[in-house]
Amino acid sequence: MPSSTDQSSVFGPPGRWPQSDLIGMSEEFTPELVVAAYRSGVFPMPQHGFRGRELMGWYSPLDRGILPLDGLRVTRSLTKMIKRYRITVDTAFEQVLIRCADPSRPGGWIDDRIATVYTLLHRAGIVHSVEAWTSDDQLAGGLYGVSIGGLFAGESMFHDPVIGRDASKAALVGLVDILRMDARPRLLDVQWQTPHLAGLGVIEIDRDDYLCRLAAALELPSPRWPKGPANPS
Fold it and tell me: 190, 66 in Cβ contact below 8 A?
C-alpha cells in the first residue's frame, strides 16, 4: 500500500472538483486506489447500472459529516445499555461486513466489489471492525472503517433488531475510546450527517475545512488497535 499520496495525483486538485458530492467515476477499483482516495478526502460508493456499466463513484461531500472525539453524546440510557455488551476489535470483521451489506437493509450499497477490496484492506491492517457482543456471545452490532494515520473513516454500522438495541452505538463508543486514548486530535469521518448521527454529536463542515483537518490528521500516528477485547467508557 502507498505510504502517502499527493491529493492532486489521482483526482486532480480539489479546487477543480465539481461543486457536487460526486466528483468522479471509474471502472478501476483496487485497494491502492481506495487508500489514495481516502488520503485525498474521497471515498467510493458503487454506481450500479450507469449507462449499462458497473462504475465506482468517488465522493467528497460539500458538507462532510464528522464526529468530534470530545463531542460524542452518551445519554444516561445509552450508558446503561452499553454495559450489556462486550466490545471487541477485529475479531469478527467478515461477520460485521456481511451484516452491514445485508441487501434487505434500506439504502444498502455494499456490493461484492466493496466487500472484496475492503477485506483485502482489513488483512493489510488498514480496515478495522469494532464489535458488540451479548453476554451469551451473540454478535449484536458493530461497525467498520478505514484507518490511515490519524484518520478513521467510518464506512457502515449495524445492529441486530432483536438482540442488539443500541449495539451499534456501543461499538461507536468503543471506537471513540480507542481514537482518543492518547489524546491525539484524530479525525473521525462519517461521510454524511443524518438525524440519527446528529443525535450522537455528528456535525457538518464544508469540504475545504475537512481537507485541512484531513491533512493534519494524516500526519498523526495511527491509534493502537487492540486485538480482541476493548472496553468502552
Answer: yes
In tens, the pLDDT along 177-229 reads 999 999 999 999 999 999 999 999 999 999 999 999 999 999 999 999 987 67
User: In angstroms, rounded to a whole number, what is the distance separating the alpha carbons of residues 60 and 41?
Assistant: 6
Strands 151-159 and 187-191: parallel
The dihedrals phi and psi of 82, each to the nearest 5 degrees, come to -70, -20
Q: Which three cell numbers stand for residue 64?
A: 462532510
